[in-house]
Amino acid sequence: MRTVKSCVGTDWCRYGVQDSVGLAVALELRYRGLRSPHKLKSGVSGCARECAEARSKDFGIIATETGWNLYLGGNGGFTPRHAELIASDLDTTTLVRTIDRFLMFYVRTADRLQRTAPWIESLEGGIDHLRDVIMSDSLGICASLDEQMARHVAGYADEWAAVLDDPDKLERFTSFVNAPGVPDPTIEFVDHLGRRVPAGMKDGQPTDLAALGLGGVPITDGARIPMGAPA
Ligand code: SF4
């Protein structure tokens, strides 16, 4: 589950009709760590102007005056595809429950590495069948889907934080087991335009910048978040 993209919504945009930032944060926290057949992307736009490009996501939400429109099955990439509208003007509770069911139905039935767009196309009846399953419970599985998602949400744990808290697990992340204090000499970082990047990753960029008349000029000026080396 990737970071949920949002526009600035009612907090910072005069056109916003719903709190797109708040919903995006809530969705990201709810679905983080979900194991799925392929990556999942989502976006939330605070009005029909669609600045978050929600319709290019596996599940995208666009605010309306009275609720949220939900679109499913979009993607970018080599074969871009707009997500399709599955329901309009949903209240937030119904919206989240519908996304819960969509995701769990997808997780349980899609092939490995099958994105949501081809998965929906593979369903007999396509998007209409999907709507029937997750909104009208045509297969009688919604209680099970709800229960599975509730279990995921309740059971989420930050696996990387758990490694940092466990000295035994942390020990596995050393370059050499017989010399744990010695860094791998083949891993080298360099400073590039004020950023710490792996050596060899910046080839080609100076040429492009020079073509733009920006050779040697830092792309960003002003205050920056300090980026320290890992301890
Ligand atoms: S989608 Fe609407 S609310 Fe969001 S930034 Fe664009 S204009 Fe503003």
TrEMBL record:
Signal peptide interval: none
Domain of life: Bacteria
SUPFAM superfamilies: Nitrite and sulphite reductase 4Fe-4S domain-like
Keywords from the named record: 4Fe-4S, Heme, Iron, Iron-sulfur, Metal-binding, Oxidoreductase
Residue ranges annotated for the Nitrite/sulphite reductase 4Fe-4S domain, each copy included: 1-135
InterPro entries in the record: NasD-like, NO2/SO3_Rdtase_4Fe4S_dom, NO2/SO3_Rdtase_4Fe4S_sf, NO2/SO3_Rdtase_FeS/sirohaem_BS
One Pfam family here: NIR_SIR
Name of protein: Nitrite/sulphite reductase 4Fe-4S domain-containing protein
Organism of derivation: Actinomycetospora termitidis
